[in-house]
Amino acid sequence: MPELPEVETTVRGLARVLDGRRLTRVEARRADLRRAFPEDLGQRLTGAVVTGLGRRAKYGLIHTDRDDTMVFHLGMSGRWRIDPSAEEPHDHLAIETDDGHRLVLNDPRRFGSVDLVRTAELGEWGPFKALGPEPFDLTAKELKRRLEGRSAAIKLMLLDQNIVAGLGNIYVCEALFRAGINPRRAAGKVSLERLKRLVPSIHAVLAEAIEAGGSTLRDYAQPDGELGYFSKSFAVYDREGEPCPCGGTVKRFAQGGRSTWYCPACQR
């Protein structure tokens, strides 16, 4: 599933051709993805001017001058294509702009979603209402407060969107490795000193992944078709059995329905 860096990269790519442009055509080519497209999507967006783009957790945001925001989630396999040379079978939403650009949302597995929310009501919109802070806004003290008394593993708590919004499996594994924290450690027992290493590690790994255009996993690609290359920098993720620089060996185990990779020699 595309994670925060992939969504941020996508939003930045879309902004280059959408920001400030008038939408001349918005066409949903099927009734639904994970859930139904808004029935009035085309009516409310055609003729609107895009006033800005943003991201909340793993959702992309396209704001318009009609006080509407189109909220999209890429699901497992969704990606935007800019000015594609040919149509593909899973192009489910098409947008055209006043300067001739064409953007297409392609989603073979249809686990993504598109919603239309009044911009002023975004904070109270169902999927956003209980979200925790964005990772880049997080401090060690705030994370300590949110983890207080929690007996669940630190890895699982970091994946809880009510604790921190937008973190996913890849980057949590990598951040815990950089901070030297065992992913099995009870979240409430991680000291403030350790969290002071963890939070900058989260910031750094996300920033590096965004700079690299994300990680190329299965179907993900940037809107311009380029593939992200942060996967070449993985220290532990998907590296079971490979050596760690500390002299240990990367291990994998199942945790909360996902695989976790870590080095038991240097993550305590």
From TrEMBL:
Task: Extract the InterPro entries matched here.
Answer: DNA_glyclase_Znf_dom_DNA_BS, FPG_cat, FPG_Glyclase, FPG_N, H2TH_FPG, Ribosomal_uS13-like_H2TH, Znf_DNA_glyclase/AP_lyase, Znf_FPG/IleRS
Q: Where are the transmembrane segments?
A: none
CDD domains noted in UniProt: EcFpg-like_N (cd08966)
For this protein, the Enzyme Commission number is 3.2.2.23, 4.2.99.18
Return the similarity comment.
Belongs to the FPG family.
Q: What interactions and quaternary structure are annotated?
A: Monomer.
Protein name per its UniProtKB record: Formamidopyrimidine-DNA glycosylase
The organism encoding this protein is Sphingomonas humi
Q: The organism's lineage?
A: Bacteria, Pseudomonadati, Pseudomonadota, Alphaproteobacteria, Sphingomonadales
